[in-house]
Amino acid sequence: MLIRISLLIAIVAGLAAAGLGFLKVKEKIVTTMIERDEEKKQKESAQAERDKTKKTLKTTQEDLATTKKTLTTTRKELETQTARAEDLDKQKTDLTTQLATAKGEREIAQNKLLAWDLIQKTPEEVKVVISDLAKTRKEKDVVLAENKIFARDNRALKQKINDLIGDTETVALPVGLKGNVVAVDPKFDFVVLDIGAKDGVLERGEMLVNRRGKLVAKVRIASVAADRSVANVLPEWKNSGLEIMEGDQVIY
Predict the structure, then answer these.
(1) Closest CA to 204 of 220, 181, 189
(2) Of the candidates 204, 206, 223, the residue with the CA atom closest to the CA atom of residue 162
(3) Which of 237, 236, 205 is closest to 221 using CA atoms?
(4) CA atoms within 13 A on the CB side of 208
(5) What is the pTM of this model?
(6) Are the CB atoms for 63 and 69 separated by under 8 Å?
(7) Which of 55, 142, 196, 242 has its CA 20 to 30 A from that of 70?
């Protein structure tokens, strides 16, 4: 009897232990299944997120490619428009220059027309007037040259007459006559000048000797050659302490 009771107790205890183990195993299995389902869910979620990210990345890459293409097109259009704008600016500048030139030419033409209106003559008549004026100027130059010759001959003739009658009157020389001293003889007080008859120099003509704006002496022409003349130094006009030197200027 006691053995049965002990056996029953042992069986019950075994069943209890087995039930307790089964419960623990079941709990472990349930926990594992829950963790598996959670990991599966997370994996599926991660997979979906990855697919979404890949899709977004692909869309972004496509958008980037489209943007690059659009940017390239826009840049080309910008370059085209810039070149066109520069061309238009150049055309504007050229047209402005042409307009300014045209205005200037128009003003010149208007001034010429106004000038013709003021003189009330045709171009052909003006040409005749200009030709007559040139002819008159030439004739005037000839007359002036002849007058100079007549005046020189008159002075020479007057000098010869004075030589014959012994007149000591000072002879007038051409106004503004200038020359230079090229030689000096201090012993006999005469100088040689680089001007002569072709310059209008006459005997007994008197000239002042000048050195850098200072009066040095006065001379009287004694003899005249074509391009040279000899003059005597007048003692009463010779400044004390100053001697005539080569290079001094003579003026009338």
Answers:
(1) 220
(2) 204
(3) 205
(4) 12
(5) 0.37
(6) no
(7) 55
Max mean pLDDT among 148-152, 161-165, 194-198 falls in 194-198
Number of H helices, E strands in the chain: 2, 6
Determine the Cα–Cα distance for residues 116 and 119; give it in Å rounded to an integer.
5
User: Using CA atoms in the order 203, 209, 210, 214, what is the torsion angle rounded to 10 degrees?
Assistant: -140
Its sign, for the CA torsion 49, 53, 58, 62, is positive
User: Of 162, 164, 248, which is closest to residue 202 (Cα–Cα)?
Assistant: 162
The end-to-end CA distance of the chain, in Å, is 187
Question: Under a CB-based contact definition with an 8 Å cutoff, are residues 179 and 168 in contact?
Answer: no
Q: Which residues contact 214 (CB under 8 A, 6 or more apart)?
A: 242
Rounded Cα distance between 133 and 194, Å, is 38
60-66 average pLDDT score: 82
CA distances for 20 relative to 7, 10, 12, 77, 148, angstroms: 19, 15, 12, 83, 163
| Average pLDDT value for residue range 233-237 | 83
Summarize pLDDT for 166-213 with one digit per residue, the tens.
555 778 899 999 999 999 988 888 999 999 999 999 999 999 999 998
Output the six-digit token pair for 162: 């004075």
